[in-house]
Fold this sequence. Notes:
It is a single chain. The protein is an alpha+beta fold. The protein is about 55% helix and about 20% strand. The chain has a domain at about 40-85 and about 190-345 and about 450-565: Outer membrane efflux proteins (OEP), CATH 1.20.1600.10. A hairpin with a 6-residue loop joins strand 4 and strand 5. The protein is elongated and about 150 Å long.
Amino acid sequence: MRLVASVFFVLAALLSTATRSSGQANPGLPIIMNPTAPGTEVDIVKQVEPETPRIPLALREAIELGLKNGLALEVQRYGPYIANEVLESAWGAYDPELYSDYQYSSTDNPVASLLTFPNSSILERDLTGEAGLRGILPFSSTSYGITYGGRRVQTTDPLSLLSPEIRTSLVFTVSQPLLRNLIWNQPWTMVKTSQVGSRAAWDEFRRQLMDTVQAIENDYWFLVASEEQLRVANKSLESARALLDQTKTQYDVGVVSKVDVTEAEAGVASREVNVITAKNNYLFRQDQLIDLVYGAGLRPKLEFLVEPTDPPLAESKYEVNLDMAVEKAFSERPELAIAHDEVERQQYLVQYAKSQRWPQLDVVGQYGYQGLTGQPSKDCVIPNFTGTFTPGQTGSPCAKFIPQLPPGSVPNSANIMDANQDFFSGRTGLNWSLKGVFSVPIGNNTAYHNLERTQLEFRRANAQTKRTEQDIILDVRNAVRNLDSAYEGIEASERARIAAEEQLRAERIRLEHGESTPFNVLLREEQLVSAERDKIEALRVYQNSATALDRAQGTILQSHSIVIQDVSTLR
């Protein structure tokens, strides 16, 4: 009976070894696991959530869907558009402004004058208004304005020739700063810094896009690895159960002791724990990838699982020229572009702060016309200076004496008044002026300390740029080193896996001949599982290291033929 059991065990061991060997493809290439031929064996991974639909997913498709559906990237898409609106808003400071101002007033002023009636008052109704266009020119900081104003005054003043009196004006004004606020005033500084901010927003979006692609790649290979780890754990559990059945059979025929059965049972329990852990990690990686690829497709209740279709292969060592990789990273990495943007922005702020230290020296020029028209006042009288006042009358009506006034006694009287007409034909006068405005703030502590602050921030931005360059060098060096070690790890793990597999086969044979125990077989089997896990992890590390190098060089978008304009449109 013992001989029969031994023969059965040897046949089972040989069958297991043959099955494992027959599934290996391209033995010269390091691959994660030996794929099961379709129809020969039930896929153990698909036994996880068997009722849940599976969606085949290639890496390229995962990246395309992730850039389309990813919610994290969707949040970042708004950045460049918001920065562009900030820039357009800054240019709005140079938009011309139409304005108007109107006022109506009625004033009854008591007066006591020899030129008016005693104990009288003068009633004035005044309608004043102006409208115009004003603004500021870019770069030169020249302020300009065109103003049209008018005033209509109706009065009972006996000395006023016209009531209503209408005055109009058209004035052109230009103000040019020569020291403070020349070029570097607040609107121009805002425009220049907003231009830098808009460019920096696109660089930041490019950085987020690179990080998103890297995250999708990493999680894709993590899912592939976790799926293979689950498959290894399940196969290990199957082997432990088969060994337990065999050990029980041997115990029934008296070949082994009860201790051996207990050890086999412990091995099954240990591997059940490993399966539970691997399954949990597999579902966790599913959630991570679904979140990145399908966005809102991740729901509280599991609705589908993705099934990666691209196995990671390391056919040859990835040779990298370190100097060329760093040079490429300096030209492609958005982090360095963002640092340069900040240096430029701080430089503009320094220029503005320097301008604010200077005294104010502005030149203001005006050129315009004034017009006068109206109707003869019915209340106007020529004062009587004879010293004798006739009760009820202190003078004579203006209309009676205007034609008799000698030329020049009343300014332009012969031209501005006609007794036979009730409307004044009016006059126009040309006016211009030129003035300078000069002011020097005493102390000017605010401007000087603002300049010191902006200069320090400018120096800090330059230091940060150098720090970013150093970080890029470190990233590239680490990525190259990790890639080399990952490839070496693949080769080493493959050798360890082959050795562990051979040791397990030999240990099973020794067990059949009574030279070993189930405990030793379980140890060898555990070593094989560990070696297979190391192989899976080595391939995963290699793929992620290749992605990390692509990201460190800033070429990850080019590697996947991703055009920023194609993925930046708001959904």
